[in-house]
Amino acid sequence: MATLWPIVRFEWRRTRRNFAPVFFALAFPVLMLCMFGGIYGNEPSEQFDGRGTVDMSVPAYLVLVVAVTGLMSFPLGLAEYRDRKVLKRFRATPVDASAFLIAQGLVNLALSLLGALLLVAAGYLFFDLNLPASPAAAAATAGALVLSALAMYALGGVVAAVARSERAAVAIANLVYFPMIFLSGATIPLQIFPDAMKTIAAALPATYAVELLQHAWLDGATDVALDLGVLAGVVVLGTATASRLFRWE
């Protein structure tokens, strides 16, 4: 453990200098919120069962935050290091190799937490965002966010494990990431999807993360057992698959 924190500090400095994950985790969700919040405001709407657009959007945008770190930053960082033989050289040192993976995970989770706090603060300050109605609802929202993040990181681990190169990892991550954020309700409300698109959305794990977060935050209607089961299953199967297939070199 004594060697973990220096690695975490190094990874944090490296991540801060990487424009893409910092922009998409911290700035992009806030920009989306400001754009759509500015257009639609946060007045109660019959389409959203009396809730405002911003109230519906913020829990969904939280999935956007954890998806960019879990599906893009985390696997692409591992693929980059493997392509450049960093992981191979790392294993030749006396340091436990798992410390590197833990550091990668901690730094990306910290970036997710910072992005989530910025998003909620922007919604509250600029659009009168309604926060969870009780401490229990806030705790449930935090738990749903943690489970959603673990599911995204498990999928990201699979991407890093199956990609043969950094370039392949970029292609696979994009193929997974963009449908996950645009067809799951994370950016566009599921309520306006036609039935065919809702069927496609039902095949995406991020859809269940969006529904679970909106339920925890807003007490929205959803099948909680199904949402929890799908996300937990993704965590277990994704972690097992990534652990079995991951190559250090």
Notable characteristics:
249 residues; mainly alpha; 10 helices; 76% helix; 0% strand
> Shape, please?
globular
Run of helices and strands = HHHHHHHHHH
Q: On the 0-100 scale, what is the average pLDDT?
A: 88
Task: Count the E strands.
Answer: 0
- The tally of helices reads 10
Question: Which percent bin holds the helix content?
Answer: over 70%
Largest sheet: none
Could you list the spans in which at least 5 consecutive residues all have pLDDT below 50?
Answer: none
* First and last CA, distance: 24 Å
Helix/strand class: mainly alpha
The whole-angstrom Rg is 18 Å
Description:
The protein has 249 residues and is mainly α. The chain is 76% helix and 0% strand. The chain contains 10 helices and no strands. The longest helix has 31 residues, at 53-83. The protein is globular and about 60 Å long. The mean pLDDT is 88.
Q: What layout of secondary structure does this protein have?
A:
Layout: H1 4-16, H2 19-40, H3 53-83, H4 86-91, H5 98-127, H6 135-162, H7 166-182, H8 195-201, H9 205-218, H10 224-245
Helix pairs in contact: 1-5, 2-3, 2-5, 3-5, 3-6, 3-7, 3-9, 6-9, 6-10, 9-10
In short:
The chain has 249 residues and is an all-alpha fold.
